[in-house]
Amino acid sequence: MKASKLILIGIDSFILDFVETFISKELMPNIKNLMSTGSYGYALPSMPTFTPPNWTTIATGADPSIHGITGWTFDSRKCKAEHLWTAAARAGKKSVLIRYPCGWPSTHKNVLAIGNGSPHHSIGVLEEAVAYTLNRIYRYSGGLHGTFESIPVSFKPAQGWKDLVKSNMPPMESELNIITEEKFKPIKWWILAYASSNKGYDRILVTASKDSLNPVCCLRRGGWSDFIKIKVTLKTEGRPLEGTFKFKLVELDKDLNGFSLFRTQIHSLSDFTDPPQICKELIRNVGPYLDNPSRFCLAHGWYKTYFEELKEHLDWLVRAARYLKEMYSWDLLFTQCQSPDYVKHECWAGIDPSAPGYDPEKESEYWDIISKDYEIIDEFIGRLSQLADEETLMVVVSDHGHLPRIKVVFLANILQDEGLISYDDKGNIDPSSSLIRGFSHDGIFLNTKWRYENGIINSRKDYIELVNQIIDVLLSIKDRDKHVIYLAIKSSEASPLGLDETSGDIIFCPRPGYSIVTKPADKLRMSVKDYIGLPDPEYGMWGGAESIHEGLPSAKTSVGTNMAMFLMAGPNIKEGYRCERPVWLRDIAPTISYLMGMRRPKNANGRIINEIIKN
Predict the structure, then answer these.
(1) Cα–chain-centroid distance for residue 299?
(2) Which residues pair with 229 in a beta bridge?
(3) pLDDT digits (tens, 9 = 90+) for 226-253
(4) Dihedral angle of Cα 539, 541, 542, 548, to the nearest 10 degrees
(5) How far is residue 401's CA from residue 173's CA, in Å, rounded to a whole number?
(6) SS3 string of 381-428?
(7) Taking a C-beta distance cutoff of 8 angstroms, is the pair 143, 545 a contact?
(8) Which of 485, 341, 348 is CA-nearest to residue 400?
(9) What's residue 526's pLDDT?
């Protein structure tokens, strides 16, 4: 029997070893059930081993050299390969994409897309989450991961209020700047803290004006508000945009010496679906949407708040999938959750003895955080599984794993001192004198005439000599007795890795646990020897993240791996089978196409995973 339907659940950074460990502790019964009725194993990601390239590889069955997504982009129009849902649409099937990365906008009239799946500042997010605290709390993560900073507030005796609320202690007020981004006109609200009993301050009102009879919300310590509507206005256009958000009162000391108020992201009530009219329908029938739980909470140890927000986010995804099934009878569902990637980036050093900052006395605490995340994901998968029938193919897949961020390699400084790259006064590469023109995630671009109009390398002989020279430099880099670069090859030799000259003239991979810095570090403030330093938020695309996913697809350390995982269950799939060897993520779409009796996506170069198929 061929499968007639598909539910593909993408879980960012899901690691098979972790899943099997938590199954043994009886924390993931739904995944356990799917494994017992299906086939599963490790899957090698494409290079570069991060989010957009690999969710696109999963969806197209093609390597990045074919589909063209090698950077940090979530626009389906940038993809050069056909998606699985477009191939399904050609066969007359209908697909729904709920925050599947790089799936927006829709590629066909039979494809409905909700969100673009970006881990931060995704389409529809007007402002990311923030917190208001008595004392500023700050974490500079840097790189792709941004800054997690609170907005300080200060309380003073309440004055000028209409119908001031009764309080057993003097009511205290503070201004509240709801809007933080410069592109919007500011909005000022008020916080009123008061004591409903003689045990100290225990509640707050949030108001749009000094009128306690018309609060936006009333909160107790640990309580969440309902969704709150707000209109924000762009300074440049003057056009109002309507969005929703929630508050949580995380901390309120009885003497008001401690105060923390969390505000979720503000998400638009429009313009996050394709076709656009689906927005209002979903808001009306499913409810307001929050695209992601906030990494702010993880960065500052507010784990309870983070997991509460995660559960609400996943609940919306399930209810939206159910509603759209009832109303539009989709044949293929694609959805994705980012949370395990967030948690690992923030908590990896707590579980890995090789990571800087590891404390054996706190290891069990951090394993509890990661296991809680996996447990919630398991419930999410179980609820989506209820939408399947006997003709449904269930697929659970991740895009990559994680490795500890042990040290950083100041590659730009090395190449600069070798005379291979030069910078202008502003710290930008100087195209008039630099032999190296730029970097990709895994590659180096030379400043050639045939790639750049104003390039300075015009001899093929000089080019070949320079390529070999740079490869020798890369392979010579050491951290004491350890070689830091595992692989350095010409891009013409990189096709087995799924890469070509579009990713650079030279392709290289660092040793597992080492991240590469491709901008000059003028002030090496940390412990640095021979261009090797300890992790620091100021350096590298991973910033202050405690773990990375960089380098060879098969890279492993004592705890971590770059490898993704996959699981398939349904018609014609072997039951309880664990693959002996890893498959590739590019094999997922061709295998789904075969099991559903469809033609594979036009540009797919992956294979059918025959070893998991019955007969």
Answers:
(1) 15
(2) 244
(3) 999 999 999 888 788 999 999 999 999 9
(4) -120
(5) 47
(6) HHHHHCCCCCCEEEEEECCCCEEECCEEEEHHHHHHHCCCCCECCCCC
(7) yes
(8) 341
(9) 44
Q: What is the DSSP letter of 46?
A: P
Nearest to 251 by CA among 220, 218, 219, 221: 221
- For residue 528, pLDDT over 80 is answered with no
Q: How far apart are the first and last CA of the chain?
A: 12
Q: Please report the pLDDT score of residue 538 as a whole number.
A: 64
Q: Cα–Cα distances in Å, from 329 out to 5, 319, 321, 326?
A: 10, 14, 10, 6
Residue 425: count of CB within 10 angstroms of its CB? 6
Q: Are strands 95-98 and 332-337 parallel, antiparallel or unpaired?
A: parallel
- φ, ψ of residue 398 in degrees (nearest 5): -115, 170
Reported as a pLDDT band with limits 50, 70 and 90, residue 142 is: low
Q: Quick one: pLDDT at residue 121?
A: 87
How far apart, in whole angstroms, are the C-alpha atoms of residue 452 and residue 377?
46
As a 3-state breakdown, the chain gives helix, strand, coil percent values, each rounded to 5, of 25, 25, 45
User: In the prediction, which pLDDT does 120 show?
Assistant: 86
Whether the Cβ atoms of residue 233 and residue 185 lie closer than 8 Å to each other: yes
For residue 126, pLDDT beyond 80: yes
The predicted structure's pLDDT at residue 139: 67
Q: Which residues pair with 573 in a beta bridge?
A: 613
H/E stretch holding 111: strand 111-114
- Quick one: pLDDT at residue 149? 82
In order of 418, 436, 439, the CA distances from 469 in angstroms are: 10, 12, 17
Provide the residue type at 194 as one letter. Y
Phi, psi of 602 (to 5 degrees): -55, -40
| Residue 212: Cβ-neighbour burial (10 angstroms; 0-12, 13-18, 19+) | buried
Tokens matching residue 265: 């992201």
Structure tokens at 315: 């609940």
Closest CA to 47 of 300, 284, 574, 400: 400
CA distance 451 to 445: 9
Cα–Cα distances in angstroms (integers) from residue 516 to residues 163, 230, 277, 513, 539, in the given order? 60, 42, 44, 10, 9
What's the predicted TM-score (pTM) here? 0.95
Nearest to 512 by CA among 482, 536, 490, 537: 482
Q: Which residues of 121-145 are buried (b: 16+ CB within 10 A; e: fewer)?
A: ebbbbbbbbbbbbbeebebebbbbb
User: What is the side-by-side strand order in the sheet with 215-220?
Assistant: 156-157, 172-177, 188-194, 203-207, 215-220
Q: Are strands 147-149 and 138-140 parallel, antiparallel or unpaired?
A: antiparallel
Q: Give the alpha-carbon dihedral of 214, 220, 222, 225, to 10 degrees.
A: -20
The tokens for 576 are: 């309880």
